[in-house]
Design brief:
By secondary structure, this protein is of the alpha+beta class. It is built from 7 helices and 5 strands; from the N terminus they run ββαβββαααααα. Strand 1 and strand 2 form a beta hairpin. Helix 4 packs parallel to helix 6. This is (2Fe-2S)-binding protein. It holds the Pfam family Fer2.
């Protein structure tokens, strides 16, 4: 039995210690934010934060995380108000969304240590792959989130997902149809 803390809750996994953390999180804990991409740590879609470090959960076993603290995308911020989550939306850095949780977790781990990270530091800390080509926007989002963290400013420019549709509806007056032109007789 492996004991660890996942998203601030003690967890006991009754799984083989050689089981990759990714599968324990997804299959046993039903935390499906971390994605299986490549299985060899290249893509970063499975990144979670372990004791403050962005780690590929497909490469670490349950036995290796015994007694450690794991944070998944589900617990980064319950209302999706983390500056990096907001900056990802504001910068249009989300394409298909498959790799997004891994980027967010790797970026959040970096920004927790260094909110002044420059592009080279971001590239070194976050070698995740985005096949959709959103990489430059993701870097801008990480930079933007760093600025927000440093200034203690919340990025409120976007509504938090889960907003009641009635609250989001715009009161737009109905457009009147333009009158048809008068018919002229030839």
């Amino acid at each position: 039995m492996t004991r660890l803390t996942v998203n601030d809750r003690p967890v006991h996994f009754l799984m083989d210690g050689d089981t990759p953390l990714l599968w324990a999180l997804r299959d046993a804990a039903n935390l499906t934010g971390a994605k299986y991409g490549c299985g060899n740590g290249d893509c970063g879609a499975c990144t979670v934060i372990i004791d403050g470090e962005g780690i590929r959960s497909c490469l670490v076993t349950l036995a290796e995380v015994e007694g450690r603290y794991v944070t998944t995308i589900e617990a980064l911020s319950g209302d999706r108000s983390h500056p990096l989550q907001q900056a990802m939306v504001a910068e249009g850095a989300i394409q298909c969304g498959f790799c997004t949780p891994g980027f967010v977790m790797a970026g959040a781990a970096l920004l927790a240590k260094n909110p002044r990270a420059n592009r080279d530091e971001i590239a070194a800390a976050i070698p995740n792959l985005c096949p959709c080509g959103a990489g430059p926007r993701i870097v801008r989002a990480i930079e933007r989130a760093g600025r927000a963290i440093r200034s203690r400013e919340r990025l409120d420019s976007l509504p938090v997902p889960g907003l009641d549709p009635a609250q989001a509806a715009l009161d737009v007056p109905a457009l009147e149809a333009e009158p048809e032109p008068a018919k002229t007789e030839d």
